[in-house]
Sequence to fold (88 residues):
Amino acid sequence: MIIGTSGDVIGRYERGDITPSVDVVAKIADVLEVSVDYLIGKTKLVIDKNTLNRLEEISNLSEDKKSYVFNLIDMCLRDFKTKKAYAG
Fold:
């Protein structure tokens, strides 16, 4: 198995018979390409690896560059919401 455990153990996780360790949960999330938060039901947001990588790159920018990127995103979101409001 990719996460280093047997199918029987995975079945026991799925049935709620046992609880996986944090390390196992992280491995399962990696294999399924979702966040741990998504896997445990704390969010419905699924972020693909490309998007996650882009967010990590943004986090490494200087504060003024981050602000510029977020302002562009805010502008696009505002325009999208405006068009959606007038279309409906």
Observations:
- The radius of gyration is 19 Å.
- Residues 49-87 form one domain.
